[in-house]
Write a structure and sequence with these properties.
- The complex is a heterodimer of chains A (114) and B (115).
- With 114 residues, chain A is mainly β.
- Helix content of chain A is 0%, strand content 51%.
- Chain A contains no helices and twelve strands.
- In chain A, the strands form three sheets. In chain A, strands 2, 5, 6, 10, 11 and 12 form a six-stranded mixed sheet that branches.
- In chain B, β4 (31-37) and β5 form a beta hairpin.
- Helix content of chain B is 0%, strand content 49%.
- Chain B has strands at 5-7, 10-13, 19-24, 31-37, 44-50, 53-57, 65-68, 75-79, 88-95, 105-106, 110-114.
- Chain B is mostly beta strands.
- Classes of the chains: A mainly beta (114), B mainly beta (115).
- Chain A binds chain B through residues 4, 32, 36, 41-44, 46, 49, 51, 90, 92, 94, 98-107, and chain B through 31, 33, 35, 40-45, 48, 50, 55-56, 91, 93, 95, 100-104, 106-109, 111.
């Protein structure tokens, strides 16, 4: 069955520290992959996406993610976290056929210490 | 170029009442999706329209839920006899048919609170 796992429910980092959020997926082929950020009470904002090609993807706000086929992972990274990055982060897999629906992970809540 | 819009943004209702939400996708986007996000969870797929045809419904969509897209443009999601468990954020997304990778564009969501 198709699924997305975000193993870390909560992560706390100090401002200026580096960040890595983990995402593992289960899918029959290479899926489309996305990272979204959501502030409390707000909608989803797309950070970055992977469809094919270069496995290191650059996104907005200084985020990047690396697709590793052998590990079925698509981890999100940022070299230096800002206090405004505190939010919830969702990894999603996009089906590559049929309805092309998305399957989301359960999210990782990021807290940033000043 | 306007994005996906949803109305209302917030809805508070009493248990047992019916509610209807509206989604206006990006113009000329043929694909339209509804997702539901409960507190502390990621969004879950509810249903998919291609133009006016509803092509897939999740098992999450009970008999109390109905969605329409009558002219292939805007869509409505109706919940009858609401229950407290229906409290959630309802998200709509759209994408153009024939796009190579089907990137979905999400609306701001409608937050439903059932008292």
């Amino acid at each position: 069955a198709q699924s997305v796992t975000q193993p870390d429910i909560h992560i706390t980092v100090s401002e200026g520290a580096s960040l890595e959020l983990r995402c593992n997926y289960s899918y029959g082929a290479t899926p489309y992959l996305f990272w979204y950020v959501q502030s409390p009470g707000q909608g989803l904002q797309l950070l970055l996406k992977y469809f094919s090609g270069d496995t290191l993807v650059q996104g907005i706000k200084g985020f990047e993610a690396e697709f590793k086929r052998s590990q079925s992972s698509f981890n999100l990274r940022k070299p230096s976290v800002h206090w405004s990055d505190a939010a919830e982060y969702f990894c999603a897999v996009g089906a590559t056929s049929g309805t092309y629906k998305y399957i989301f992970g359960t999210g990782t809540r990021l807290k940033v210490l000043a | 170029d306007t994005g996906v819009s949803q109305n209302p943004r917030h809805k508070i209702t009493k248990r047992g009442q019916n509610v209807t939400f509206r989604c206006d996708p990006i113009s000329e986007h043929n694909r339209l999706y509804w997702y539901r996000q409960t507190l502390g969870q990621g969004p879950e797929f509810l249903t998919y329209f291609q133009n006016e045809a509803q092509l897939e419904k999740s098992r999450l969509l009970s008999d109390r839920f109905s969605a329409e897209r009558p002219k292939g443009s805007f869509s409505t999601l109706e919940i009858q006899r609401t229950e407290q468990g229906d409290s959630a954020m309802y998200l709509c997304a759209s994408s153009p048919l024939g796009s190579r990778n089907n990137e979905q564009f999400f609306g701001p969501g409608t937050r439903l609170t059932v008292l």
